Amino acid sequence: MLYIIGLGLSDERDITVKGLDAVKSSERIYLEAYTSVLMIEKEKLEAFYEKPVTIADREMVESDSDQILDNAQNVNVSFLVVGDPFGATTHTDLVIRAKELGIPVQIIHNASIMNAIGACGLQLYNFGQTISMRPDSWYPRVKENTDIGLHTLCLLDIKVKEQSLENMARGRLIYEPPRYMTVNTCLEQMLEIEELRKEGAYGPETLAIGCVRLGTATQQFIAGTMEQLVNEDFGAPLHSLVLIGKRMHIMEFEMVRSFCPEQHQAKFEEIFKRDYEA
Amino acid sequence: MLYIIGLGLSDERDITVKGLDAVKSSERIYLEAYTSVLMIEKEKLEAFYEKPVTIADREMVESDSDQILDNAQNVNVSFLVVGDPFGATTHTDLVIRAKELGIPVQIIHNASIMNAIGACGLQLYNFGQTISMRPDSWYPRVKENTDIGLHTLCLLDIKVKEQSLENMARGRLIYEPPRYMTVNTCLEQMLEIEELRKEGAYGPETLAIGCVRLGTATQQFIAGTMEQLVNEDFGAPLHSLVLIGKRMHIMEFEMVRSFCPEQHQAKFEEIFKRDYEA
């Protein structure tokens, strides 16, 4: 059996009881480490499971999946994914390859940012499409959400296992430390792009929420206008951002206002009354 | 401490290790039983926790929350919610009341249908707003998703603790067994509404996926056109439905086609080529 197991959002104890049973029954355990960044170290997982864990990078999963699936017709193998197995990527290739080899697959779900974001005070029903802040087509997608008044969850870019130009030129497999986009950088870039495109997907006075370390003990939400939030200090990763759509309900407003620093609350209310409540 | 703990989608072993620790440390345990229907019985939870569990119905949570919160400044109390605590409802009132009473609150997240739906083969990024099939404003919301080519997750109506007219008239607190909308009923109603409104939010040949018992051992996906799926047998609850948006990617198509009964695959491909691929 191949188990694909969500680890949830924070630490080693966010695995489900069912997931932990599967890990304990497995002969080999792989940890997917390229679409997201674990907020805990492999060593902590190993201590908790009392078993060794192998890091599975993109090369291994995409080019050498038969190594992961080796003999999984006869023994259990666990493939661990931060969040839910169907978060950032669906690991479709691995599932299809397992099916070709006659290996049964069981998915063990967990929380991901896609549902935990409900903690920011906005209703999940009022979110439009989620966007990923990579330099492709995110702007029109935000605009589509804006045009119908929906909230937008923006997942910020994470760079893992990137090589420096020098190391790449010299063919040295030395990787830079992981880099995380901050809410501040994201907001700066967004506001610059809006300046260029002027299509009104959002603006300096659009209400937003910086969401950091979601689902962990140090989770924090800071609400304000986009231009106010540029200067807030959000601390350690991971960061994400929610742009608030015009359809914000008064009850959502009241919850979100509680995440607004005191000096910004008057402005927050003023903009809600001016742009949202109508 | 008030712990608000997601139970996940299927059985008692879908709670996280962290959630189970919180339950074990609690003096009282409440199970929220009005916004969703647990697929396992209270008795199974009690056996697994080795502790009594109190069912919290809407009256208790909305009118008598101080009973739930009693002395939670000094002892731990667990409030269990099927799925994730921020799924259907956000339990905002309970959190606000706890804060007023100086009771710390900790949320323990879990999977909900909002992320587990990724198992149907469609990318979460390509979903628009989720709709709830209650007789209010769902139609314009589906239309908004359709117009920009996004998928729509439709959560079907669940009726819990409803009284018959006779029992209500006689003031007898006898409740009907829970009732679940089936994919079939949902599709019939949707197609009737489209016949009346003719705004083109969808039609008999729109591609869709019936998703049943998501996250459980008997989970099943059946893909087809809306009119084909009306006649499929989806079995026991819970049911939900996904309408596929025009932006479906070829990789999504290939995954979803594998959920299509063989006799319907040719039609499925034909419609994909005619209406989606362009």
TrEMBL record, chains A, B:
One of its GO terms (biological process) is methylation. Residues 1-229 form the Tetrapyrrole methylase domain. GO terms for molecular function: diphthine methyl ester synthase activity. InterPro entries: 4pyrrol_Mease (IPR000878), 4pyrrol_Methylase_sf (IPR035996), 4pyrrole_Mease_sub1 (IPR014777), 4pyrrole_Mease_sub2 (IPR014776), Dphthn_synthase (IPR004551). Its EC number is 2.1.1.314. Keywords: Methyltransferase, S-adenosyl-L-methionine, Transferase. SUPFAM superfamilies: Tetrapyrrole methylase. S-adenosyl-L-methionine binds at L9, D84, G87, S112, I113, L156, L214, H239. Gene3D superfamilies: Cobalt-precorrin-4 Transmethylase, Domain 1, Methyltransferase, Cobalt-precorrin-4 Transmethylase, Domain 2. Pathway: Protein modification; peptidyl-diphthamide biosynthesis. It comes from the Eukaryota. Pfam families: TP_methylase. It catalyses: 2-[(3S)-amino-3-carboxypropyl]-L-histidyl-[translation elongation factor 2] + 4 S-adenosyl-L-methionine = diphthine methyl ester-[translation elongation factor 2] + 4 S-adenosyl-L-homocysteine + 3 H(+). S-adenosyl-L-methionine-dependent methyltransferase that catalyzes four methylations of the modified target histidine residue in translation elongation factor 2 (EF-2), to form an intermediate called diphthine methyl ester. The four successive methylation reactions represent the second step of diphthamide biosynthesis. Belongs to the diphthine synthase family. PANTHER family: DIPHTHINE METHYL ESTER SYNTHASE, DIPHTHINE SYNTHASE. This is diphthine methyl ester synthase.
